[in-house]
Design brief:
Largest sheet: 10 strands, mixed
Oligomer: single chain
Strand content: 15-25%
Distance between the termini: 45 Å
CATH class of the largest domain: Alpha Beta
CATH architecture of the largest domain: 2-Layer Sandwich
Number of helices: 11
CATH topology of the largest domain: Dihydrodipicolinate Reductase, domain 2
Radius of gyration: 22 Å
Shape: globular
Order of helices and strands: HEEHEHEHEHEHEHHEEEEHEEEEHHE
Structural class: alpha/beta
């Protein structure tokens, strides 16, 4: 759903709240200047992040940066960018955007580019992973706070209607008290450390959505049957920072005695099914199967007998929720609305940073053999040394 950004309200909100963006006042009636930064030589533009400004009133897509000549020509034409650049630094200097889509899925440049965009006074929508480590997220979030800019990260599953409906229903006691969350990665060829950072981030974001901030973590990460060391670190095709291991088993403690687990082991792929989260409650069980279009199922149990036990899984009936979820915008529209209203977007940089921190906690716990508490004391990547 596209939203119109009232120019005067947008300027008044940011100017009054921060005093840090006077150049927005240079042309009150001009549309907001938006740009896209990507890298076709290293994969695609995330999940369509080159298109997020298309058809939005009050926004003009003025530029695209891509170091690959063929890629920037093709994508620039597809999205209707007024100008294209090989260097994102030149793009920022010449176009002076207020909105930026940092679209490449490789996270090794995210922090550097985000910091430059924020220092130029631009709000950022960033493909996940947000960054590679907590120290990078600390720097980016601090800069955003200093500049009065809003960051959104493409952890969009938390805003999908079926997920919001499940949260509403669980909050109303649909399965009684939620006591345990059991998350499974995709467990394909990326099983282990790559699965943890690429898809585990979505699951950790959802864990926090349902259970709040975690308190502590313990974990075991194996590589070919042995406990990992920093020497097992490796880079993967989608450069998301250092990863290690082909088997991950992690446990998280949340407030109120709620526990959560994350498992990624290719040998469990057939038995655990689609990646997602099971919610174990005192009176029932719900399952969120994740994908581009997630599904939610409820389990009913006939109990054990001499003939065995039979469980029936049925799709979540929207009527089981006593009240409708709060109306919401789509992720990009929510980010733009957050800029107007000077609030945190639902898919915020802070939420993105928490996902990265939970991944790093798994490695810290596995390498040390000890439980680690949040927030992490060591902010650098545990596999970096």
């Amino acid at each position: 759903m596209a939203i119109h950004l009232p120019r005067r309200r947008f300027l008044a909100t940011l100017g009054t709240a921060t005093g840090l963006v006077p150049r927005l006042l240079e042309a009150e009636d001009a549309p907001l200047r938006a740009v896209v930064i990507g890298h076709t030589g290293r994969g695609d533009y995330g999940h369509g992040l080159e298109h997020i400004f298309k058809g939005r009133p009050g926004i003009e897509l003025v530029g695209l940066a891509d170091p690959v000549e063929s890629g920037r020509a093709k994508i620039g034409k597809v999205i209707g960018a007024s100008r294209v650049y090989a260097d994102w630094r030149e793009l920022l200097d010449k176009e002076r955007p207020q909105l930026v889509s940092i679209a490449m899925r490789h996270a090794d440049q995210h922090a550097e580019i985000a910091l430059a965009c924020l220092r130029a006074g631009a709000h950022c929508y960033i493909e996940k992973p947000f960054v590679r480590s907590p120290d990078e997220s600390d720097a980016v979030l601090a800069e955003a706070e200093k500049r009065g800019c809003r960051i959104a990260v493409a952890h969009t599953m938390r805003m999908m209607p079926v997920v919001r409906r499940l949260k509403q229903a669980l909050g109303e006691g649909l399965i009684g008290e939620v006591r345990e969350l059991r998350a499974f990665g995709k467990q394909d060829s990326r099983a282990g450390g790559e699965d943890l950072m690429v898809l585990g981030l979505h699951l950790f974001d959802l864990m926090r959505m349902f259970a709040g901030d975690p308190l502590r973590c313990s974990a075991r990460v194996l590589s070919q049957g042995s406990e990992i060391t920093s020497a097992d670190r490796r880079q993967v095709k989608d450069n998301v920072g250092w990863v290690a291991g082909d088997q991950v088993s992690a446990q998280f403690a949340f407030a109120g005695g709620v526990s959560a687990t994350f498992t990624s082991d290719a040998r469990l792929r057939e038995t655990t099914g689609r990646w997602g989260i099971e919610f174990q409650g005192s009176k029932g069980v719900a399952k969120l199967n994740c994908d581009l279009s997630p599904d939610v199922f409820m389990r009913s149990t006939r109990g054990w007998s001499a003939a065995g036990k039979q469980d029936d899984w049925k799709p979540l009936d929207a009527a089981l929720a006593k009240a409708a979820p709060d109306p919401s915008l789509a992720p990009v529209s929510d980010w733009l609305d957050a800029i107007v209203k000077n609030r945190e977007p639902e898919c915020s940089g802070r939420n993105g940073a928490w996902g990265v921190e939970m991944v790093m906690a798994v490695y810290h716990a596995a390498l040390s053999g000890c439980r680690v508490d949040f927030p992490l004391n060591v902010r650098t990547h545990p596999l970096a040394s």
